[in-house]
Write a structure and sequence with these properties.
The protein has one domain. The chain is built from one helix and six strands. A six-stranded antiparallel β-barrel has the order 1-2-3-4-5-6.
């Protein structure tokens, strides 16, 4: 079970749902319009939001860092019910730029 660090930042996610009903995230979309494609989902595990204590899933993903789709970075993406989020303090990767959301 993973318990992320930091504050939950909501994101939109493009998802592929297979014939078996499994949801696989395909890209992360930030509120400021940035879009990061997901190259590969390495796995998923149960997760719990440290603030709300809500149970969900943590998807361990390889995400393209830029529009050119050259470099990838590892990112943890969380799903709690129908809502998707990242926890910027949780991993050593893609920046959330939460300052742009605060304005």
């Amino acid at each position: 079970m993973r318990e992320p660090k930091g504050t939950r930042v909501p994101v939109a996610v493009e998802v592929h749902v297979g014939l078996d009903g499994e949801a696989a995230p395909r890209s992360i979309l930030w509120a400021d319009g940035r879009r990061f494609g997901i190259f590969h989902v390495l796995g998923r595990e149960k997760a719990r939001d440290p603030r709300t204590r809500e149970w969900g899933w943590c998807y361990d993903c390889m995400v393209f860092k830029d529009v050119l789709r050259v470099d990838t970075v590892r990112k943890r993406l969380y799903r709690f019910g129908a809502r998707w989020a990242v926890f910027p303090g949780d991993s050593r990767d893609l920046e959330a730029r939460t300052d742009s959301h605060a304005k």
